[in-house]
Amino acid sequence: MRSEIVVVGAGGHAKVCIELLRAMGEKVAYCVGAGDVPDHCLDVPVVNGDEHIALLRREGYSRLFVAIGANGLRDRLATLALSQGYSLVNAISPKAVVSPSATLGAGVAVMAGAVINADAVIGDLAIINTGATIDHDCQIGVAAHIAPQCAVAGNVVIGKYSFLGIGSRVIPEVEIGERVTIGAGGVVIANIEAGVTAVGVPARNIKINRT
Ligand code: JB3
Q1: Are 102 and 143 found together in one domain?
Q2: Band of the pLDDT at 17, cuts 50, 70, 90?
Q3: Which domain range does residue 191 map to?
Q4: Could you tell me which residues come within 8 angstroms of residue 76 by beta carbon, excluding any fewer than 6 positions away?
Q5: How do residues 28-87 score in pLDDT, each as one tens digit?
Q6: I need a labelling partner for 198 at 20 to 30 A (CA). Which of 4, 42, 116, 180 fits?
Q7: What are 128-161's pLDDT values in tens digits?
Q8: Domain assignment present for 161
Q9: Which amino acids bring their CB within 6 angstroms of ligand 1?
């Protein structure tokens, strides 16, 4: 069995995650991209097409990280990899601060400067991006993405696949549903229903996507 990691994705997010994994002492063997991909992502060779996830598994790779920013696609590709017998690793910057009482799922990315405080629960495949803060007792859903410099106060619940745009703020105790998008710099001061896009200060609904 090979210990090197297969990274799914070969774009900007993959570059950041490869460097996180290396900072943890890991080695990345291949990136698996799709479409018009370059030969290399940083200096990691890129193979093109999801059939390579199964091919690499047969070659003995068993540890994988999905480094794709699109939340639904990240979850779909992780499910595919798990069905083929991979385990999902985490990519946690040594320059992040993660409370010993926080709980992290599998396939989670936590970038440099992020802070995750006491008793927070971070769902599988979530991204806590550069400099974002997740305060005590928060629950961050599966494959959610908290973009750089967001601040999420205590006891906030954020649903599956939701995206907080760069620099968003959320006051304590708020519940944000699944598949919500908060526009860059938005300030959330009340609960937000599933599927809503909200922008501004305070954040106001501009669209509801019911699918
Ligand atoms: O905002 C920040 C700091 N980072 C963003 C990140 C979270 O999300 C970043 O700025 C981008 O907005 C985005 O990064 P990502 O996902 O790397 O996007 P992009 O650079 O467009 O690369 C997408 C990658 O996904 C490419 O390498 C594609 O080949 C790959 N891809 C797309 N569809 C796929 C598939 N790869 C596989 N294996 N299968 C697919 O179906």
Answers
A1: yes
A2: very high
A3: 92-198
A4: none
A5: 999 999 999 999 999 999 999 999 999 999 999 999 999 999 999 999 999 999 999 999
A6: 116
A7: 999 999 999 999 999 999 999 999 999 999 999 9
A8: yes
A9: 8-14, 32-35, 37, 50, 68-69, 73, 77, 129, 147-148
Residue 211 domain-assigned (yes or no) = no
Pocket test for ligand 1, best of 55, 68, 125, 162 (most atoms within 8 A of CB): 68
Same domain, 148 and 104: yes
Do the beta carbons of residue 98 and residue 50 sit within 8 Å?
Answer: no
pLDDT of amino acid 211? 64
Global pTM exceeds 0.85:
yes
**Same structural domain, 28 and 105:** no
